[in-house]
Design goal:
- By secondary structure, the chain is of the alpha+beta class.
- 26% of the residues lie in helices and 38% in strands.
- The strands form two sheets. A three-stranded antiparallel sheet has the order 1-2-5, with no helix packed on it. The chain has a three-stranded antiparallel sheet with strand order 4-3-6.
- The longest helix is centred in the N-terminal third of the chain and has 21 residues.
């Protein structure tokens, strides 16, 4: 091998670690932007007339609120309770709005969560059945009055 070919090889070698570092940095930036992207809001529709008519068949019990810290020392407020279906129809899912108010009694934060159905809520709610629910909140704004949020049915989906 000639001396000029060896010199060329030695000069290009330092670029490999720099290119690898740039690729790793780019992958980290893409991951960071993906994890911190805004979450699309769920469609905010009112409950159907059929769902509103069925509300009298639903009962909440043992609803309470507790606060704790998660693994990253962030305050998490949880609303826990039970929901009973005293009506004749099986319910595939139930979504609720939790409305948090400020010290001036104006709505400060609104969050929609599923308490029956889906992965976290484990299945439907049959007639005569009761299910427990847990709603965690880790992004409540400052100025929240620390009171139990108002819970409003957002949507009921009936099975068949």
């Amino acid at each position: 091998m000639s001396s000029s070919a060896a010199e060329t090889k030695k000069k290009s070698f330092p670029f490999v670690p720099a290119l690898t570092a740039a690729a790793v940095l780019l992958a980290l930036l893409v991951a960071w932007f993906y994890l911190n992207r805004p979450v699309p809001k769920t469609e905010e529709t009112a409950a159907s007339q059929e769902a509103k008519a069925y509300l009298a068949n639903l009962a909440l019990s043992d609803v309470n609120m507790q606060a704790s810290e998660n693994l990253v020392n962030q305050k998490v407020v949880e609303v826990l309770g039970n929901i009973s279906n005293n009506g004749p129809r099986e319910l595939k899912s139930i979504d609720v709005y939790c409305l948090f108010y400020g010290l001036d009694n104006r709505e400060l934060h609104r969050e929609r969560l599923r308490i029956v159905g889906g992965v976290a809520a484990r299945g439907s709610l049959k007639p005569g059945a009761t299910k427990s629910f847990r709603m965690p909140f880790d992004t409540l704004p400052d100025g929240w009055n620390q009171a139990m949020p108002k819970m409003v049915i957002a949507q009921i989906t009936f099975a068949n």
